[in-house]
User: Which sequence fits this backbone?
């Protein structure tokens, strides 16, 4: 404790006890030692802070002013120390997050609702898009954390999140045998998924697909399929909500291996030193642990 803080403590105790002997006992000091410290403190004011009486001590006018000052100073110091302690335990800062669009649509809202509730002082910046774009943002250090689907291997640490099947999706009026005559619906997605689509088709059909419909989102693609306008190959995420209106068939390669796609979280090894990044990683690990196995 600094000398000035010790003086505040001694002075306030004497003022509150109104007796030097009682104050000394409370402070675990001898009465002469406390009297000496009080005398040294009063020398700084060139006038007494207490009036000595046979029953104890009474504050002088200067003593009353100093009492309020010391009381306020102790209170403000305590508030300052509490603020410093809160700063150590309260996580603040900015988190730059990137996520594939479909993960952002179906999984991320619940994740971020819980995360921001737990860490209200973290400022979140979010970008969504196809996984190849998120991978590029991550590689360029434009984001701290990237959530990507498919076979992306940016330099960084990886946390597995889930695996989903890739499915042939048709209307109720369509089946696999009629696919060569039914329009294929292509939608804006990651190039790696286009490769899966084309490879699967070539393993199962001798003629090119009837690709003539191009849309920008999976949602539009699904709506077209519901209206019997064509077929497509889609990841399973989100399809469960439409299973009564469309046919959903998980696909396999010609050797019987299921066609699947992983979703992974990537982060730069240095970034967990940033408290918001580590907080999100820890939260995601906790969140995924509490989810049904995927």
Assistant:
């Amino acid at each position: 404790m600094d000398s000035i803080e010790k003086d505040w403590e001694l002075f306030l105790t004497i003022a509150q006890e109104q007796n030097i002997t009682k104050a000394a006992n409370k402070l675990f000091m001898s009465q002469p030692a406390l009297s000496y410290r009080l005398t040294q403190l009063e020398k700084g004011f060139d006038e007494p802070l207490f009036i000595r009486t046979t029953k104890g001590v009474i504050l002088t006018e200067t003593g009353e002013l100093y009492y309020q000052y010391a009381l306020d100073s102790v209170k403000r110091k305590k508030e300052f120390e509490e603020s410093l302690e809160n700063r150590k335990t309260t996580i603040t800062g900015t988190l730059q997050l990137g996520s594939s669009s479909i993960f952002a649509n179906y999984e991320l809202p619940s994740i971020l609702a819980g995360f921001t509730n737990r860490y209200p002082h973290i400022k979140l910046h979010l970008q969504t898009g196809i996984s190849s774009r998120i991978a590029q943002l991550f590689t360029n250090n434009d984001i701290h954390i990237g959530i990507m689907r498919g076979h992306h291997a940016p330099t960084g640490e990886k946390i597995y999140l889930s695996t989903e099947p890739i499915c042939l999706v048709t209307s109720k009026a369509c089946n696999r045998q009629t696919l060569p005559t039914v329009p294929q619906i292509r939608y804006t997605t990651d190039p790696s998924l286009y490769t899966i689509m084309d490879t699967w088709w070539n393993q199962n059909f001798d003629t090119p697909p009837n690709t003539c419909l191009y849309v920008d989102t999976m949602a539009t693609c699904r709506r077209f399929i519901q209206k019997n306008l064509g077929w497509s190959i889609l990841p399973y995420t989100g399809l469960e909500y439409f299973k009564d209106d469309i046919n959903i068939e998980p696909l396999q390669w010609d050797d019987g291996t299921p066609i699947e796609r992983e979703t992974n979280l990537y982060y730069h090894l240095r970034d967990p030193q940033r408290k918001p990044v580590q907080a999100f990683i820890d939260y995601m690990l906790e969140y995924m642990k509490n989810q049904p196995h995927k």
About this structure: Residues 3-89 form a domain with the Arc Repressor Mutant, subunit A fold (CATH 1.10.10.10). The mean pLDDT is 90.
